[in-house]
Write a structure and sequence with these properties.
Helix content is about 80%, strand content about 5%. With about 110 residues, the chain is mainly alpha-helical. It has one domain. A hairpin with a 2-residue loop joins β1 (about 5) and β2 (about 10). The longest helix has about 35 residues, at about 75-105. The radius of gyration is 18 Å and the shape is flat.
């Protein structure tokens, strides 16, 4: 029996797997982005970008796909996906302009 340990119907194994996954993604992004800068700058920048990546992923996986794609609402799915991608893209650009770029220009 491979049952996950649950406390108050919370699957802690699954939560820990998600945390480990996003920690791995964070480390990978730091390594990739530190090629042009340093590890410190890449780490700092990714602290601001990761919530955006995480929210984008979970909105698609736990809201858009089950609600619209699996229920054959393809037009709504594509429309919401495009809207979400636009919002996340604009939010990423705002992070660039307000947080990342001013810091990089100072150094």
């Amino acid at each position: 029996m491979n049952r996950a340990i649950t406390i108050n119907s919370i699957n802690w194994r699954r939560i820990m797997l998600h945390i480990a996954f996003w920690a791995g993604v964070f480390i990978l992004f730091v390594i990739i982005y530190s090629v042009k800068t340093s590890y410190a700058i890449a780490t700092r920048d990714n602290v601001f970008y990761m919530p955006l990546h995480i929210s984008y992923f979970y909105l698609i996986v736990y809201w858009l796909i089950p609600q619209y794609l699996f229920n054959a609402h393809y037009v709504k799915f594509v429309a919401y996906l495009l809207a979400l991608a636009t919002i996340v893209g604009l939010a990423g650009r705002v992070i660039d302009i307000l947080i990342v770029d001013p810091y990089l220009l100072k150094t």
